[in-house]
Amino acid sequence: MINSKILVYDGSFNGFLTAVFTAFDEKVSVSDIQREDEYQSGLFSESETVITDSEKAKRVWYGIDKKSHTAIKQIYFAFLSESRGIEMLLYRYIRKLFSKQDASPSDYSDGIVLKTSQLAKSVGREKHRMEAFVRFQLTKDGIYFANIEPDFNVLPLISKHFRSRYADQYWLIYDVKRKYGLYYDLKKVEIVTMDLKELLTNSIHKSETLTAAEYDFQDLWNNYFKSTNIKSRINLKLHQQHVPKRYWKYLSEKREVV
Amino acid sequence: MSFERIKEKLNILADAAKYDVSCASSGSNRTNKNKGLGNSTGMGICHSYTEDGRCVSLLKILMTNYCIYDCAYCVTRKSNDIKRAAFKIQEVVDLTINFYRRNYIEGLFLSSGIFKNADYTMERLVAVAKKLREEENFNGYIHLKSIPGASDELMREAGLYADRLSVNIEVPTVSGLKLLAPDKNYEDFTKPMLKVKNEIIQYKAEKKIIKSTPKYAPAGQSTQMIIGATGESDKDIMYSATHYYKNYHMKRVYYSGYVPVAEDKRLPAIGSQVPLLRENRLYQTDWLLRFYGFHVKEILNADFPNLDMDVDPKLGWALRNMHHFPVDVNRADRAMLARIPGIGMQSVHKIINARKFRKLNWEHLKNIGIALNRAKYFMVCDSSKWENRDLEPDRIKGLILQNSSGKFRKEYSNQLQLFS
Ligand code: SF4
User: Fold this and answer.
1) Interatomic CA distance for residues B159 and B106, integer angstroms
2) Distance CA B87, CA A46 (A)
3) DSSP helix/strand/coil, A237
4) What spatial distance separates the first Cα and last Cα of chain B, rounded to whole Å?
5) Which of B20, B113, B265, B387 is deepest in the core (most CB within 10 A)?
6) How far is the CA of B246 from the centre of ligand 1 (A)?
7) Which ipTM score applies to this complex?
8) Last-in-domain residue among A125, A160, A186
9) Ranges for the Radical SAM core domain (chain B) (predicted)?
10) Which residues 342-361 in chain B show a CB within 8 A of chain A?
11) First to last CA, chain A
12) Any CB–CB contact under 8 A between A257 and chain B?
């Protein structure tokens, strides 16, 4: 009987790297790596729950980084895609990197490398979209607040961008789907979870939470957006390709259509 | 401030500014200083897209649409019967800051009709930029229009606050300019361009010696030409663009299909189709010149004064130069790979990396993302299967067109009907 195991981890990237460490360290033959909230026992394999250990995770991170800086970035981005079976794909990729055979992040003729780089690319695209589509709304507490609903878990990736751009204002970006947010208090960014009483999306109803001037500025922006349009050049297909419909409810310039 | 009044002004002054197609907010290198507001490093971000599919990254407005000139192609011209308005300096500053803080924009693109005279107008543009930088500690992107005829002193000051400066030449030929903007001098356009170019050269030289030299227009300068207003050929346009790239170190030349804004015998009638396909072909050509190592004479010359409308300029060039093909992708150098139709610069880069590991065959190339339905007629790879019929260029063109659905297909067939 082949002695293969399912490794179960807590869903964090550090947890995943710890699982990889365990697999290498204990020379486990891994049949799957699964998040604990999605764990399904296999008929023929036993499972082991991995306790996240940031020291072990760090060793794997630096180990990969030493092999290739592009690879560690791609692995991190691809992981955040949360796509099904991502753990095993990345585990195979990492094994390849550490094995003798050539595996380079620029070898696009290799299937695993290609798949990872494609996922990383999709996540990268979503990161850019969020940097573009976040719309802050000024609350009466003086916080610039935005709620978002990205396809992938990109909050960790956009933190730096917003921190360096909006260094002199309080801001909070909240991921509605994953139920956590980033809060900047003029000094540092913190991860926060909270009970959102209402979603601040486009609706006729005006929220008590926001300042009155906030709605005036949204109105101005909305107007501005309309006047930039050149009717004789209209191309709605291209427009939707750039601004997919699923994001519209968070974009104030799209208020009337939603 | 009164939002109603501002809204009215914004409608008028944004509407008049929209014909300037430049939306770039990239290429600067301003970091956030002293915990201020904003930065403009690296790639600019498109925060939204207009319904005609263009990037919205800057608050693009005119300071005023009062103008003493009467350029035939311009909505703002003196003789046009339209509503006029003017922003106060502080109003533009407030709008910019409030839009920026909400992550609507990367910064401001401020242009203006010419009110009183060139210097008076330029002074007001500079005043806005100065206020943003010095009073608001704003490090976002600022693009100012260089007003034709503005003095060297003002242009010098403008570059200290702005990331980019631009003068729109608008009409690609001097004779066209005489016809459509008779009260403007060609030199009025080139003078501020020349000043900006020289300041940038000087800045770069001084910067090497004294690190703290204040920045001067770090994102360089650009210009715009309108296409299809006068009878100029694609050759006229691209030779003129090449001239501005070379002699004024332009970062970008923009091509803007003329949108008729006036009934004027010298111009296409209101309601004429905007030449979007032609505009697209010109951008493709511009791209080939800047990134693919083509020389303008290879693409446009006395024998071929106009671009093909049915195929892109790279494919057009390849079909006229079949003696360079087929290219072996496993051996060819970067420059030649870049000339294969269907292979973009990113693919060139990927091919060069991937072929270090193994010889590439069709499967590999497909995974890399090459448009094989075009490329296959012009290349060979590690496979015994390749296009070995000795096809005539016209036949290849036919085969490629049959199997492609370019974004301008429909429009192209409309335009063909117009010509047939
Ligand atoms: S000077 Fe400028 S704003 Fe005035 S009419 Fe001519 S192009 Fe238009």
Assistant:
1) 18
2) 72
3) helix
4) 57
5) B113
6) 26
7) 0.87
8) A125
9) 62-197
10) 350, 353-354, 357-358, 360
11) 58
12) no
